[in-house]
Description:
Pfam families: Glyco_hydro_92, Glyco_hydro_92N. By secondary structure, the protein is an alpha+beta fold. It folds into 2 domains: about 30-290, Beta-galactosidase, Chain A, domain 5; about 295-750, alpha-1,2-mannosidases domains (Glycosyl hydrolase family fold, Up-down Bundle). The protein is built from 21 helices and 35 strands. The strands form 8 sheets. A 10-stranded antiparallel sheet has the order 2-5-6-7-8-17-12-11-10-15. A hairpin with a 4-residue loop joins strand 10 (about 170-180) and strand 11 (about 185-190). The longest helix is centred in the middle third of the chain and has 21 residues, at about 465-485.
Amino acid sequence: xxxxxxxxxxxxxxxxxxxxxxxxxxxxxxxxxxxxxxxxxxxxxxxxxxxxxxxxxxxxxxxxxxxxxxxxxxxxxxxxxxxxxxxxxxxxxxxxxxxxxxxxxxxxxxxxxxxxxxxxxxxxxxxxxxxxxxxxxxxxxxxxxxxxxxxxxxxxxxxxxxxxxxxxxxxxxxxxxxxxxxxxxxxxxxxxxxxxxxxxxxxxxxxxxxxxxxxxxxxxxxxxxxxxxxxxxxxxxxxxxxxxxxxxxxxxxxxxxxxxxxxxxxxxxxxxxxxxxxxxxxxxxxxxxxxxxxxxxxxxxxxxxxxxxxxxxxxxxxxxxxxxxxxxxxxxxxxxxxxxxxxxxxxxxxxxxxxxxxxxxxxxxxxxxxxxxxxxxxxxxxxxxxxxxxxxxxxxxxxxxxxxxxxxxxxxxxxxxxxxxxxxxxxxxxxxxxxxxxxxxxxxxxxxxxxxxxxxxxxxxxxxxxxxxxxxxxxxxxxxxxxxxxxxxxxxxxxxxxxxxxxxxxxxxxxxxxxxxxxxxxxxxxxxxxxxxxxxxxxxxxxxxxxxxxxxxxxxxxxxxxxxxxxxxxxxxxxxxxxxxxxxxxxxxxxxxxxxxxxxxxxxxxxxxxxxxxxxxxxxxxxxxxxxxxxxxxxxxxxxxxxxxxxxxxxxxxxxxxxxxxxxxxxxxxxxxxxxxxxxxxxxxxxxxxxxxxxxxxxxxxxxxxxxxxxxxxxxxxxxxxxxxxxxxxxxxxxxxxxxxxxxxxxxxxxxxxxx
Length: 756
């Protein structure tokens, strides 16, 4: 963190007051190394230094891990072996459509182990629009992004011959060298679950003539000197250049054709003669994007953390469409293997991102969000299922059927770009069948859930967590059907959305595992992980009744008992029983390290819990805990996250919370209020209006909100609606170091619950 702040201080000293005058320097607050100090045993974000444009189809990154290793870049590693085209969502999911370039000096070292070169972080610059590293052999590599490619520059030391190695990665690849055009074309086909015929076509154009070339393959490291083309597993190219050369490289890829790849390159960087031009365009794009939220006040460290998180929240879901020669969108479908007109997006797991990343996108990017809803239904048409985890096709990972959350949430917020009857029909199929790809493709245990109102354990793994998330998803279908006047579906899901009640055990005060005969599992311990729960324990999963906190309060004994149970999350010892996991997994370690009792912010199930005090009439406790989480568990360094970042979700939690609200129940139009981090926040809305949040007297000590005003009028609600924000206006608070416990809340001042 000190290094980041020092760099900002130097920039301000050298560049005057650029940060204060214009939003042009916002991108310089971003550290793309945030969260990269991750390992299998403990993740601090599980990120890599992504060089990309917002929601870009391809990204680029340095590679410290071996080909096929999900740990693409780890901060503690001391050498680099490639600069990759990348799409990876998580280290647990590996990657697809990858190839890499790497500069080698003098002798021709082609294999990834032979070419690996040491570096120091002091010689590394990592911004969204620009990555630079000077390797220990003095070769300098620079990268600037385009939407579907990158502009690179390799600078070799004087007196040393330069070689650039293209590595075809782990699957089938084909390459062709065009010496007269100073160009290489080809394709890669790596990843899993793709339709027959899928390829990622690339074109790479150099500004410097080749003095030699050939092909090679990475399974045995064999070289074919002078060979112009080859195809096979791990096939690549080597190119040789004169001594001391500085070589600029422009590349773009397409999932449709080589011709489209060339068009993508021509359109996105064809007129850029130097990397500086591409870099300047990328920086301008990022500054404009980040200026959609302008923050004032707060520390430089707070701003670095905020904009670094905002950057991460702006990478997913990725565009999977391209623009034809007439500028019309079309895409190669990862679901049916054919080309379609229109928009497609990919690379996200809804179990993570329905909670905050998509509600943030709905607020800032409603046009893109509307296109995404259309793409969900197109995916359903093309493969027979709504996606649950697209990477780039349906993987079916994790639990729940949360595409309906996205659709219902968009509809509730007035983003009505799709046919609700088609959405409900697709969800009805999803909820009453089991698909072939993973537990969340269709519904594990749907027959028992429909018949008995819960998923039995151990017949189905993670059954209690599935019951809770199915009930929430059924609520989303219910609320969409209600709003769209689809009586058939409204009636079908009206009772099922209350199925969470079937796994609540009043004798223990927790959601518990229940077998197919209706018996509670024996030897219950709320700190035991796994079994009927997903990546958590009973303390974490108790709160997953997003749509009916009022009903949960009633089961727990009313407002006081409910808030006392919330308090207990933080006062319980942070001990762990590993349960069915058989050993400590990183989520457990991260909870223990956080030292906040049983609060495990590093994983999704409990991330909304701190906002629930609003429902119990004690909003000041939300305000305190939200600021504590932001202060203690986030920063802009390589240790910046308390666990997996997860496709923008953990970052989006921070962004929304820093604004002063959070999306507890997507599928409604409400954001529940917390404590804004900055003195003044200006949200530039897509409709041209501004929503301004002011927090007078804000500081690290003054975290409690007093005297709320919406558009100058007293505002007593503990939530704000999407429509309030989207209309433009002001929300203001006075901030104090003591809580406002005299505020009287009426039932209508509390956030939405379906049973209230």
